[in-house]
Amino acid sequence: MKFQTTFQSVKLLTHHAVTAACFLYAAQALAGTYPLGEMTCAEIGQFASKAMQWRETGVPPKEAVQRLDQLRQGESVEKKNLMMVLSLVYGGYGDSWTVKSAGDAMRIDCETGR
């Protein structure tokens, strides 16, 4: 009887440990992910380059937002991310970026999970 009790205890502890590990792994995975929706980091970088090109050719911010609305209609995670990219490109960061560096910066930022 003692053997069954010890065996059951070990089995129960193992079950709890595995369950806890699964929850911990899931929590870390969710906490560390960048909410991209259907976009990849490379695509976010490509959009940043496109937005920087718009800025360099004199497209005003309001028109850039309209262009984004044509590319991504409705509300989505992707559109929210691209609006953030537009705000960076047309804000202070864009003052020092080129078309290439804007894309590289946003791609790398995405890949590091920021």
Topology:
Blueprint: H1 2-32, H2 41-56, H3 61-71, H4 77-89, H5 99-111
Helix pairs in contact: 2-4, 2-5, 3-4
Number of strands: 0
How many domain regions? Answer: 2
**Model regions low in confidence, pLDDT < 50 over at least 5 residues:** 12-33
Main beta-sheet annotation: none
> Approximately how much beta-strand content do the residues carry?
under 5%
The helicity comes to over 70%
Distance between the termini: 55 Å
Query: What's the alpha carbon Rg, rounded to whole Å?
Result: 23 Å
Element-by-element helix/strand order: HHHHH
Characterize the overall form.
globular
Going by helix content, strand content and strand pairing, the class is mainly alpha
Mean pLDDT over the full residue set: 78
Query: Total number of helical segments?
Result: 5
What key phrases describe this protein's structure?
mainly alpha, 74% helix, single chain, 5 helices, 114 residues, globular
Describe this structure in words.
The chain has helices at residues 2-32, 41-56, 61-71, 77-89, 99-111. The chain has 114 residues and is an all-alpha fold. The chain folds into 2 domains: 1-32; 41-111. The protein is globular, with a radius of gyration of 23 Å.
The gist of it:
The chain contains five helices and no strands. By secondary structure, it is an all-alpha fold.
